[in-house]
Amino acid sequence: MASTDLHQSPTTEKEISGGTTTGANVNGASATQRYDYGGNPLFHAHSGPDARLPAFGGEFQPGLYKPIEHRKFANPAPLGLSAFALTTFVLSLVNVNARGVGIPNIALTLAYGYGGLVQLLAGMWEMAIGNTFGATALSSYGGFWISYAIALTPGFEALTDYPNEAQRASVLGFFLTGWFIFTFILLLCTLRSTVMFFLLFFTLDLAFLMLACAEYAKSNGAIGASTKLTQAGGGFGLVAAFLAWYNAFAGIADSSNSFFVIPVFHFPWSEKGRQARAIKNERETA
Questions:
Q1: What is the value of pTM for the model shown?
Q2: What are the distances in angstroms from CA 75 to CA 58, 108, 122, 253?
Q3: Which residues pair with 194 in a beta bridge?
């Protein structure tokens, strides 16, 4: 698809999220009346005549959000997503035992430096631009990578006090189960966003679940089942890594630096999906 065509029809996620919208619809209703806040107690913080942009994975925004007209920072979401993607990609290759590699030491270097520190910084910058979801997710997963690296680094002796391998596997299972629950909470916040944004958290949640179950199986002595579950977790992790890169590319690429940009896959029940159906119905009845 040529870049000139993209300007003629705003059918890409980047263009729609960065486009200009007005505070009134065709019937003259205000933006506040257009958007259904569902009894949200924070209605006063989100309401008003300002325009809203649809959910966009490249901005790490799962719902309608205000355009940032005078941003002092660049968009930090692609940085955080890229840090998460690369670290997850390498560890997941180890988990699926790619090329016979089963020791995750190389992933620990990324967990400290890129997936940990850099992603944590991206989360702080998301907080600076007012993106609560992005700040919570990126900062938390940055903390996950740092804590995971600490747990597996021999010098910290985080697991050495446990008397046997079964208990060490159990506490790692507890650790991963907690992240499965946290990711599921974030997953619920993406149900009205884009398909690729939702799938990122869906596959990541399954990866945490598989890896947690692998540790529990190991603690029970079921080594064969543990190996299969670890490989399944690695498979879901690889998919999550590519989805994170997909959303990162959506936040970076536009018609000024790329010959193509990421297409939109909004859920039918999202705000953008309802708008598309309304336009289609108007054309059919015209």
A1: 0.77
A2: 9, 27, 9, 12
A3: 266
